[in-house]
Each structure stands twice: as C-alpha cells, then as structure tokens.
Design a protein that fits this description.
heterodimer, A: alpha/beta, Rossmann fold, 6-stranded mixed β-sheet, 4-stranded antiparallel β-sheet, 11 helices, about 35% helix, globular, B: mainly alpha, MetI-like fold, 12 helices
C-alpha cells in the first residue's frame, strides 16, 4: 500500500512539474471511419475457400480531435478489429479510415497502440522498451530526456533499468502506456489496456490515463468491455453489436449452412457488428463513479450488451 | 453481472500472483483490503528477490571449486580403474595400454612436433568449418524462418540434402575438391550448417507474434524489425543450435580425416590402427574428448551470457 500510494502521488507531482510544452508537443487528430466493414476468411475446414466471415459492417463514425471515445461491445464483436484498422495493423474489407483527413494505409506513424498485454521486449530494460516507441529520427539526447519524462509521468522512474519480468503487471502496463506516448501520437489507440489488471490497479491506471490526457490532450480511442471504465474515461461511448436477428452465433450457423449449399449467397446477407448506440457522457472528468446519472447510463449500456437490467444494479466495487 | 465478475477475476489474479488467496471471502471489505496490499507486496517481493540474487552465490553448488572438483571425480575414478585393470593384467597391453603408455605416446608425438601439429590442424578445420557452416545456417535459417516464400522454395531441398548421410558426400567431395583442406572443410561446413539452420528457422517461426506485432506497430520493419525483435527473441535457440553444430563439426572432422588425410587427429586414429599403435588410438580419443569438451565449454559460457542478456 505505501508503495502504491507513492507511485500515484509521484505521477501527480511529476505532471505538475513537467514543463507544459514538453509532453504535449503534438496536436490531436480527427479520426473518420467511412462505411468500414471487415470480413475474415473462415478457418472451418469443410467451409473450403471463399467463405467470408463478416465481423464488422457499415461502421461510420467521426472522432473529434482530442476526444476520448470508448468502444464498447461484447467479446468477439470486432472492437479490437476496428481499433487495429484505425492503426493500420489491419485493413478494412470495405470502406476507409482517415486520420486528419488523409487515409490510413499500413501502419500509421500518427497512431500509437497500447495493447491489452504490455508486450514489452523481455530482453530490454523498461527504459529501453519505452525508447522503442520514440518516433524514428529522434536524437539520442532528446530521446533519453523524453523517456525519462515519460517514465516519471507513469511513475516508473525508479524502475527504468529493470527488466519487464522484474516488475508487476500493472507497472508493465504503465511502461507500455509510456512507450505508446513516446511516439507523441496524434491518436492513441488503446485495446482493453486495463483488462488484465486487478480492480484496484485498474482504477489507478484509469486515473493515470486521465492525467496523461490532460498533460497531452491527444485523441484517444479506447476499446473496452467494461461499462464503468467507459463511463469514467470517455467523452462519448459507442456500443458495437449485432442488430436484431443477426446474432453472432446465428450468423456463423447460417453462414456455414449456406456455405455448403451456395457459397456466393453468404455475401448477399448482412452480418457483422455495427454501431448500435452512441451516447455522450455528461459531466467533466474525473467523474463521480457513484453518480445516479452514470448509473442510469450504465443500465442502458448493460442492456445494450445483453445484460438484463435488474431493479437495482449493484454498485460494488465502486 | 459484470461487477461480480470483476470481483472474482481479481481474486483469481491475486491467487496467481501470491500463490494463495487471502481475500477470497465475499465480504467487500476483505476483498478491498487484500487488493490494496497486493501490488505493493509483489513489488516489494520482487525487490527482495532482485537484491537476494547476490548472496545466492554462497550455495555450495554455485561455487566454482565445488563444481569443477565434483565434475573431476568421475574422470579420476575412470583413470584409476583403467590403471588398475592394466596393472592387474586383466587385458593384454595390445588391447588396453596403460595410462602411462598413452601419456608416453603423447610425449613422444609432442617431441616429434606431431602432436601440436595434429591438434592445431584439426582445430583449425573444425573452427573454419564451424564458422562458415554456422554463418550459412544462420542466413538460410533466417530466410526460411521469416519468409513464407523462401520456406516453400528452399525447405524441401535443404531437408533432402540434410537427409543424405554425411559419409555419402565424401567420394564426391574428394573427386571434386581432391584430398586437400577444401574437401574436409566443406564436409564440416555441411555438418555445422544443419543444426543451426534447423533451430534458427524453427525458432523464428515461433517468435511471439504479439511482440512482432508490437514492434511493427511502433514502426519497425524489415532489417530493423529482425535486428531489434526477431533476432533477440531467438538468440537462446541460436546459441543452442551453435552448440549442436560444434559437436557435429567434430564428428564430421573425424569422418573427413579418417578417410583421406595426412595429418590431424583423425589421421592419427587411422594411422595408428594400421600400425597397431593402441596407445596412440587411446591418445587420439582422449584428445578428441578434451578438445570437444573445451570448445563446447567456450560456447557454453557464451550461451549463459546470452541467456542472461536476451532471455
């Protein structure tokens, strides 16, 4: 506990101590999804070639510069796919993505990705891992200062020379965040960055992310399956899911059956997840985790995720 | 309910971290308390572990003299038993010479200047063959392991060449390269190539995709991605491949020298066989054991360093 507290306050003080221009040297970019759809080739053996398994369809969405957008959805609904498309790690089957008006083609230098797992290189120290995130062509001295700043920001200054296996999961995730920030991204893509952390660490990481956003107000796309996390962090939440009658399970079945009968027919039918709801979260951050207004929104979002609303939704653990 | 799920999730994580779950009780208070303790406790524990690495050296099995001394026990027993059997006359001297005779044979060869020459030429052949073979193996292994196209193109052919028994190359190599250094070194190159090629290609195919993707996401590609992510990730396998390759190099050396040579340890073996010099045969075998072990130990030191640095 004392250790954890120090870390937290350390991050806060460092933020205040940071010269304003240093962390936030980049401007935030708008992200536009235009009719994005993505289908994967089915891996079922009997399905043979040519059977496509649609994951996303008709996703059109504009994220304003500096906005924090949470992408909510049940597992396997294509949230991560959407994020990967935005970062150029994957490309859409149809439609296009534009960042700051220019289309994304391949891995985009304007984006930085924070993965669900820390994905640090185990043979490099924490500092050297963060260095990996620096934009190409950063001079050694500038890079070293920037890495030190970022480690301070995420409260890992004392662990710069540790290997990833010598630090805890939460610390590794903070290092991963620092690496993403090192890129000075116009768009920060976070794929369930806190999903694998324990509940308390998660809350602290959420606060840290808010601090980071204040220090460097970049556009953030945050994929999560955690309704409370979305409500706490986001300006706007979109809910991805399957429209009535095109439930994922049903989609697979029909696709398979159709595959045997007639392969081309699959393409004519529309499946895949799309934006079901879009809502703006009221109130300025940091928000009161227990407010009634958020509780109401939480109920609506949970209902959208297929969790039947009971008369009272337990507020624990918040 | 998601909130409940979260509670159990964090409970599982705690169990994973600490090996026990003190806060599994449903009471919210208990759950929160233990969760607060966890990150600090693990961080502290890891510090301790880190700091405790030095005093560990005090353990007996970690002391150099103990390791070397214990490793020498069996060879000493073997030599003693050897001495005993020969002095008791269990075997005739023409079958098993005494350790002393082998020692004297070594002295004799050394005085004629042959021992040093044989050891030097054999070691030279092994080292040249090993370096060239391992280098080629690394190159082809990287190519086949990283690129699907070259995998399809090269792998079947290389697999077939690998299947050819080493001795089958000898007549061809002698015909083409004559009985010089080239033919022997080429054979050793073939021997050292495959262990490295196979381990590197396999290891590169199994590099953590997530790490590679993370590297790509941060703008690495091509040679840089290979140098910064893929190669470091496979270094431990590369080094164990090198170790195998070195053993193979000695194996192929003896094969090459047995068949056609005028000097070297393999030549000493075949020459002594035709002269009936059992003491020299023993000497050659012991030399091979010592040289093989010595070179292997050097790669072993490198391996330990590499594992510390890259794993």
């Amino acid at each position: 506990m004392p250790n954890a507290t120090t870390t937290r306050t350390g991050a806060a003080t460092s933020l205040e101590a940071l010269p304003g221009g240093h962390v936030s040297t980049n401007c935030a970019f708008a992200v536009e999804f235009v009719g994005v759809g993505r289908a994967f080739a089915s891996e079922k053996k009997r399905g043979a070639r040519g059977v496509m398994y649609p994951v996303l369809r008709d996703v059109s969405l504009t994220v304003r510069p500096g906005e924090v957008l949470a992408i909510l959805g049940t597992s396997g609904c294509g949230k991560s796919t959407l994020l990967r498309i935005a970062g150029g790690l994957d490309s859409p089957s149809v439609g296009s993505v534009r960042i700051d008006g220019s289309p994304v083609a391949g891995i985009d230098a304007r984006c930085a990705v924070g993965f669900q797992e820390p994905r640090l290189l185990p043979w490099r120290t924490v500092a050297a891992n963060v260095t990996l995130g620096l934009p190409a062509g950063t001079s050694r001295a500038v890079g070293r200062n920037r890495v030190a700043e970022l480690l301070e920001l995420v409260g890992l200054s004392g662990f710069a020379e540790h290997r990833p296996r010598e630090i805890s999961g939460g610390m590794a995730q903070r290092a991963s965040l620092a690496r993403a920030l090192a890129r000075n991204p116009g768009v920060l893509l976070l794929d369930e960055p806190f999903g694998a952390l324990d509940a308390l660490t998660k809350l602290k990481m959420q606060d840290l992310l808010l601090d980071v956003h204040v220090a460097a107000p970049t556009t953030i796309l945050l994929v999560t399956h955690d309704v409370d996390e979305a409500l706490q962090l986001a300006d706007r939440i979109i809910l991805l899911g399957y429209e009535d009658g095109t439930d994922k399970e049903e989609g697979t079945d029909v696709a398979d059956r159709t595959a045997v009968a007639d392969r081309t027919a699959v393409a004519d039918r529309v499946y895949g997840a799309t934006v079901l709801q879009e809502l703006t979260v009221p109130g300025a951050r940091p928000r009161d985790r227990g407010s009634a207004e958020l509780a109401e929104l939480r109920g609506r979002l949970l209902a959208g995720l297929g969790i039947a609303a009971k008369s009272t939704i337990p507020a624990f653990p918040y | 309910m998601p909130p409940r799920d979260k509670l159990t999730n964090s409970g599982q994580e705690r169990r994973g971290l600490l090996g026990a779950s003190p806060g599994q009780s449903v009471g919210p208070g208990a759950g929160v308390r233990s969760r607060v303790d966890v990150p600090a406790a693990t961080e502290r524990a890891e510090h301790l572990e880190d700091g405790a690495k030095r005093p560990v050296g005090r353990r007996l099995s970690a002391r150099a003299w103990y390791v070397i001394g214990s490793g020498a026990i069996l060879p000493i027993i073997l030599v003693a038993a050897w001495q005993l059997t020969t002095s008791l006359g269990i075997f005739s001297v023409s079958q098993v010479p005494s350790p002393e005779m082998v020692w004297l044979a070594g002295i004799d060869l050394a005085k004629r200047g042959l021992l040093g020459q044989y050891v030097a030429i054999s070691t030279q052949r092994v080292l040249i063959g090993f370096v060239v073979g391992a280098g080629l193996g690394l190159g082809f292994g990287a190519l086949v392991g990283l690129s699907r196209a070259s995998d399809i193109f090269f792998a079947p052919t290389l697999g077939a060449i690998r299947a050819v028994p080493s001795l089958a190359w000898v007549p061809l190599l002698i015909l083409w390269l004559k009985i010089g250094e080239e033919s022997k070194i080429t054979l050793i190159v073939i021997g050292a190539f495959f262990p490295v090629y196979t381990t590197v290609a396999t290891a590169l195919r199994h590099v953590d995709r997530q790490l590679v993707e993370a590297g790509r996401a941060f703008g690495l590609k091509g040679v840089k991605l290979f140098a910064l992510v893929q190669l470091p990730a496979v270094i431990p396998s590369v080094v164990s491949g090198l170790r195998l390759a070195l053993a193979q190099a000695w194996l192929f050396l003896v094969a090459a020298e047995l068949i056609a040579s005028s000097m070297g340890i393999g030549f000493l073996l075949i020459d002594s066989q035709s002269n009936g010099r059992v003491d020299r045969i023993f000497l050659a075998i012991i030399l091979l054991a010592i040289l093989g072990k010595l070179t292997d130990a050097i790669v072993g030191v490198f391996e330990r360093w590499a594992n510390r640095k890259w794993a």
